[in-house]
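Most newcomers find our protein records easier to grasp once they have seen one. The structure tokens are whole numbers drawn from a learned vocabulary of backbone shapes. The record below serves as our worked example for the rest of this section.
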Amino acid sequence: MPWIAYIVHFVAAAFMTNGIPHFVNGASGRPFPTPFARSASERLSSPQVNVIWGWINFLIAFLLFANIGPLYIGTPGDTIFVAAGVLATGLLLARIFGGVRA
């Protein structure tokens, strides 16, 4: 598999991971930060905006996984890059959203 596919799998995993908190909070009816917040002081978007933003992230992840080289979970390269994308994005989101809620 070409090396670019591993990078794309990392990025797709990042989009997938970013979609989870937005979609879950939105589907649960809770406001949550998005890039589309109305004002810098408010920082929270409506649950509907979060569901849509989470869904868009899932769609981008799916399109990247489906169209840029096959994803074979269980093979070392694919698994490592997807796991690294999930971990890196999860840690970044924990820092960002932890700071917003503090």
